């Protein structure tokens, strides 16, 4: 049985201009991006390519409606490569439009129609969080179903994942914070996954170290300090993507899905809300398992004697991005039961990777503790 794969060819390139030259970007390429990235970094070096701006189809997290509207505009175009330049929304949609059959997208995500990639796919991340450039997962909100759903298939792997640090120069600090915290969660959840192995653990541990040490530098020296470490954060995001692409994410992602889908909270931010509370419950239920090793690693970075490791971790993260309660997002208390039911019945792809099983009562209890 396969334990570890990195399907895309990984490339580190110093500038967007150098990328266009090396990959001979032009006619036959469909570039999916947004004006900030294209006009700031690629305008003038991608002549002949068809450029599509995702913002035309909506803002925020990707939805089935956005994909269907985009499909109507590109279905008659001729292109051989899809080049995604952006964050999670752009990357997730690019993985879909590289497929032979795109619409109806709901049927694609509910596996009523097969995936078959017929376009070469190049992914260039502009955040340091999703890790999607190296995974075979895309997540969209299915508005007709009232929830987010993930699709995971080998056909969604990119052919090339290209890391260009200069693209993160214009990333607002809040987006840097939510995306890098998301990468941290990818690394930590995949480390405890039952599918983890020595190969994935190596990438998880290195990502954890790079991100937390980077946060400590930012707390000590101010927000501008991130620019000195942006290459490390981008690398950490890819490391975490490699780890969770092989070992999977778990309850944190599962519990954030219905909350994020209902209240349109960005993916990384929603994961952050749920994160430490899930791990406190893990620690209570199975303190003598692998989580003990994780706690030792975290304690070596955030300090203390280990008894308050998640409180110390939360203090560090809160200095980067203050955390809100579910109530502050507008969540109604009666919705907690609905979220819980969604986790137990629709998020099995994720909960199968839980460090230790969580009952319906435990999931509901976590939501209660997060409610505020």
UniProtKB/TrEMBL annotation:
InterPro entries: ADH_Fe/GldA, ADH_Fe_C, Alcohol_dehydrogenase_Fe. Residues 27-165 form the Alcohol dehydrogenase iron-type/glycerol dehydrogenase GldA domain. Keywords: Oxidoreductase. Pfam families: ADH_Fe_C, Fe-ADH. The keyword Oxidoreductase applies. It comes from the Bacteria. GO terms for molecular function: alcohol dehydrogenase (NAD+) activity; metal ion binding. Residues 177-370 form the Fe-containing alcohol dehydrogenase-like C-terminal domain. The keyword Oxidoreductase applies. This is 4-hydroxybutyrate dehydrogenase. It comes from Roseburia zhanii. The lineage of its organism: Bacteria, Bacillati, Bacillota, Clostridia, Lachnospirales.
């Amino acid at each position: 049985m396969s334990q570890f794969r990195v399907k895309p060819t990984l490339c580190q390139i110093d500038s967007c201009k150098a990328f266009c030259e090396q990959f001979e970007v032009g006619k036959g390429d469909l570039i999916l991006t947004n004006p900030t990235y294209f006009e700031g970094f690629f305008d003038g070096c991608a002549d002949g390519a068809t450029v599509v701006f995702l913002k035309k189809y909506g803002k925020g997290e990707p939805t089935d409606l956005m994909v269907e509207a985009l499909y109507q505009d590109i279905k008659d175009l001729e292109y051989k490569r899809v080049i995604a330049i952006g964050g999670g929304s752009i990357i997730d949609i690019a993985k879909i439009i590289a497929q032979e059959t795109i619409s109806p997208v709901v049927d694609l995500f509910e596996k009523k129609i097969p995936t078959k990639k017929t376009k070469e796919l190049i992914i260039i991340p502009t955040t340091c969080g999703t890790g999607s450039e190296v995974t075979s997962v895309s997540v969209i909100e299915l508005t007709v179903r009232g929830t987010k759903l993930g699709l995971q298939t080998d056909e969604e792997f990119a052919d090339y994942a290209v890391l260009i640090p200069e693209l993160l120069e214009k990333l607002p600090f809040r987006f840097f914070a939510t995306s890098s915290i998301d990468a941290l969660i990818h690394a930590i959840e995949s480390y405890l996954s039952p599918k983890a192995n020595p190969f994935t653990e190596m990438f998880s541990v290195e990502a954890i170290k790079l991100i937390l040490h980077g946060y400590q530098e930012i707390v000590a020296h101010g927000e501008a300090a991130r620019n000195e470490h942006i290459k490390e954060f981008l690398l950490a995001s890819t490391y975490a993507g490699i780890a969770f692409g092989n070992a999977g994410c778990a309850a944190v992602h599962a519990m954030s899905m219905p909350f994020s889908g209902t209240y349109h909270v960005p993916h990384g931010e929603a994961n952050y809300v749920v994160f430490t509370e899930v791990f406190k419950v893990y620690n209570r239920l199975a303190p003598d398992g692998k989580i003990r090793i994780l706690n030792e690693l975290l304690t070596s970075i955030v300090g203390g004697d280990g008894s308050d490791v998640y409180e110390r971790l939360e203090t560090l993260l809160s200095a980067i991005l203050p955390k809100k309660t579910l109530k502050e997002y507008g969540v109604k208390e009666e919705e907690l039961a609905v979220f819980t039911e969604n986790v137990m019945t629709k998020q099995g792809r994720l909960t199968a990777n839980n460090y230790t099983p969580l009952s319906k009562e435990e999931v509901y209890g976590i939501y209660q503790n997060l409610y505020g």
